[in-house]
Amino acid sequence: MTGSDAYTYAQTAGNVWARRKTTTTPTATTTPDPTPAPTSTGTNPRDALVSGTYKPDATNTGVIAGITLTPYNTGGAVLNITTADTIFANLDIYGDLNIQAPGVQFINCRLRGGTNWPTGQDAVADCRSATVLSRVTDIAPWDGVPYFEDCTIYAQRPSYYRDGIDGHAWVKRCNIYNTNDGIGSYNTDTSSTTKGSRLKVEGSWIHELIYWAP
Length: 214
Known about the structure:
Distance between the termini: 54 Å
Strand order of the largest sheet: 3-6-9-12-15-18
Radius of gyration: 17 Å
Shape: globular
Mean pLDDT: 80
């Protein structure tokens, strides 16, 4: 017996887009979409864009013009995200992100990264933890994978150690620049059975990367 999950977005007070989950009653004949995509019911002007039919650029990736972003974690400390299904929407986020739970989402956010100089491999958004894959199955291969939509991701203090996103992620319409690798498609979590990553990138603009060597 299997069920399926549906998602909608609704704009709430403070320009925050809340992603709501509606679970259908499981039945013996229901087969979930193997790669269910979130659907928007708000007024996102990019909803009609179909990845692969246009060229990503500054006008159709990253944070959406006209929506005010709320400063978050302005002290710049590393954000260790350990609560499942945490949603960050319409935020200007300071500090590197260490994502260690499934279902974490970033919708229309600016991710600046940390101000420290990393001493080892790092990323603005580190998604290498095996815990983010705890919901993944053969019929739901993207369930719980960290999700980034309409985000601007850059390193405010660039380093040859600091990538944009590392590890497992679903990246949609994001603008990534001023990092070492835009996206590092690998993981170094010793609890993982593979050193590869579960990664999907759609309609994103990755550009102006820094020189790798010190």
